[in-house]
Amino acid sequence: MVVVHGEAGASTEFKLREGETILDAGLREGLALPYECRNGGCGLCLCSVEHGSVEHRPYQRSALPDALKAQGKALMCCAVPKGDVVIEVDGFVPSEAATIATVHSGTVVGLERLAEDVMRVLIALPQGQTLDFEAGQYIDILLDDGQRRAFSFANAPHTREQIELHVRLIPGGRFTTHVFDGMKVGDPIRFEGPRGSFTLRDSMHPILFVAGATGFAPIKSIVEDAFQRGVQRPMRLYWGVRQRKDLYMLEQCEQWHREHPNFSVVPVVSEPSEDDGWTGRTGLVHEAMLKDFADLSGHEVYLCGSVKMVETAVPAFLAQGLGEDACFSDAFLMAAPVQAPVQPQP
Questions:
Q1: ∠ Cα 187 192 195 (to 5°)
Q2: DSSP for 36-63, written as a single string
Q3: What is the C-alpha to C-alpha distance for residues 201 and 313, in angstroms, rounded to an integer?
Q4: Domain residue limits, the chain
Q5: Range name among 93-107, 215-229, 240-254 with the lowest pLDDT average
Q6: In 3D, which of 167, 16, 195, 187 has the Cα closest to residue 103?
Q7: Potential cystine with 164: which of 154, 170, 189, 270 (Cβ 3.0-4.6 Å)?
Q8: Which CATH architecture is the domain 103-195 placed in?
Q9: Pairing outcome for strands 11-14 and 2-5
Q10: Global pTM?
């Protein structure tokens, strides 16, 4: 149970599902909680924990400095309560109508299997409509029961006539299974967005991208946008996957390298098979980058991958000289797999 205290003594309470963040549960209840990025980057969903404790998913320390965390502050988008909690949210008024996010309706116009378990999904808006977004942002796909599934734009803003998503098949995943087994060109699709703040900052620092699996999607959006805008900062992408076949757009990255002298790519395979002929870098992708850069000071790092990857990599980057204000991450959490119904015993 979560109890929220707000403006002038106002309060409300709601229940959470297992593993759900405070923000996700509150939005599901239609509450007007403040938020923007939903991935621990902007700090707009800051609250004070008055009772109980929470566990934080990965977030950027610029959004929640250690000093504020020590004072009992938390980010609702990353905070998973360990039990009953009481929080205070500045300016919250339960009776206030929740901010209604714009719901967009699109049509699936393309399905292309980029790898055995990765599908490129192309979505078009109604004729004459486009969606303004920044490279690195994401949309929330709306399921029929109101649940959301977040996917990053894989295309750059200057190609916004269609939306490109990279969907990885998750065993038991409700939406991803539908994409691979049931989705067809012509199907309607509803979504909210754009959202998120995993975007390229303006500076002169060299850029290091670290992508895990389909964490490549927002990096692709950012890189293509940087090329379009004439960004000349050095950019190096470390792309980590399990096996060689998972590098589903490596040829595209190598083409970028040929066409843009300020870009390079370092593919890293963690579990190469004996018969795939892989002779490149092996191991964990963040460790490969750390081996190449003994001192990360003066660089910017953009990291996108699983929660475990981000939780492991960020402290290692900071320990090797990366400034807290120069580390930007976007961790994706897999939705719980669909449980098969229990059959009654005869």
A1: 135
A2: SSSSSSS-TTEEEEEES-EEEPS--TTT
A3: 20
A4: 2-88, 103-195, 207-332
A5: 93-107
A6: 195
A7: 154
A8: Beta Barrel (2.40)
A9: antiparallel
A10: 0.80
